[in-house]
Amino acid sequence: MALLRTEERRAIESLARLADCNPFSPEFVEGEREILGPDHAPAGAVWSLRTEPGTEISGLERVGRVAERLARDVRERLLRRTAPSVEELRLYASLVIFTLYQRYARPLHEIHQDAERARRRAACYGSFRRDLDHYLLADRLSLPQRVDPAHLFACFYQVRRAFHLIHRHIVGASAPAARLRAAVWQSIFTHDMRRYWRSLYDRMHDVTTLITGPSGTGKELVARAIGLSRYVPFDPDREVFTASLHGAFHALNVSALSPTLIESELFGHRKGAFTGAVQDRVGWLEACPPFGAVLLDEVGEIDAAIQVKLLRVLQTREFSRIGDTAPRAFQGRLIAATNRDLATEMQAGRFREDLYYRLCSDLIVTPSLREQLRDAPGELRNLVVFVSERVVGPDGAAELADEVLACVERDLGPDYPWPGNVRELEQCVRNVLVRKQYRPPAAPASGPADDLAAELGEGGLTAEELLRRYCTLVYARTGSYQETARRLQLDRRTVKRHVDPELLARLKNGSEASS
Q1: Are residues 335 and 478 located together in one domain of the fold?
Q2: What residue numbers bound the domain in which 325 lies?
Q3: Tens-place pLDDT, residues 206-221
Q4: How many CA atoms lie within 13 A of 62 on its CB side?
Q5: Share of the chain above pLDDT 90, in %
């Protein structure tokens, strides 16, 4: 007789897929819907789109109750000595793991929130072991793969920590923001969670992440979420995590330092190595703990000589202090960020190709604020509320946000491009708080060609939109369908079909106003 009924097997298979799924992806929402059926009430197409500070909205609590009920029923059947198949045991183990994660997510979150507590004995580990023995019948089940309690507990802690850090640091209700959260999750766990838990959890320090995107789009926040979400082993005998996350992440902005200081900050130096080196100094690569990370912000501006040394670190995981020859090991993870176009820098000979290909084993692109607002215009209010809460606290956030939005509408207008991105938005909020106005620095007016180039750079246009905009732009300049068709090497009827009368009128009005 089979251990699992047909409907139970189907539900447990869905739970197993959900456990392996990126929680910031649309597939996660579909998984919840599949399990909860009519009880599923998502906040949107992707539940992580919600922006409210401190909230984590999904159907996971209800899914957890479904898992608890299934785990209890299947365990009772196992006690009656039903002979399960290998596949049924695999599914049951997945069900137990999912159930226990939901049960211990809150106490693990409390450990993560309290740095001092994270260094002390994890009091909940004892009850976790008892619950695991309870469901696995104290190791009497011949599972297809052994479950190591300490490793599982460490995995739970990492998942809980990563989820919170991504959710807290990367806000936004637009699809680009949601895709960014999903991309950061993959940078931590890869796309295959099962393989990560089996063999990659202690190898991800070899993967360097390169974060690119316009200035002010939160590249350091992305790096912080990745760097503080490393796997930390758990010692079951002492019931403590073997490393603290205190000081586990350090960001070094290389554009603010001279080449000598960058070298000293990164690699350290010996006393007397250069003028002013009055004592030995430990660099950040040496100080970084095994489960920590170092961010090189504005890596595109690093001097050529330092690029060579950095390449050696990535190739051999070794370096030497300035003025010393003894090799030292770098045990952490390296993250790099830049707002420069490194392809252009390589073509100009300012950035080494071999270093670039060492840096970009994992690539993340942060979206501009303009791109987010184009996808979700109402997102401006959400972000202003979020920033306002950070500036004045939750009690005065709503009032300040209303003032900011009124000033934006009055002084900037709905099409303001926010060239400084979220960093500019933060300064706008502070300006309004102090002076009840925001006056951005004057910039040369951009024309339609500039707007088109900016949107192309952001990858925000469909092929149809691109053809419509470009045909209209060229026609506005030539005034001739035939000449436009000749320039674009298109059929005249194709050009005529794609010229947008409304956009053409705006282009002509703008031209007349400037003449």
Answers
A1: no
A2: 221-365
A3: 999 999 999 999 999 9
A4: 15
A5: 63
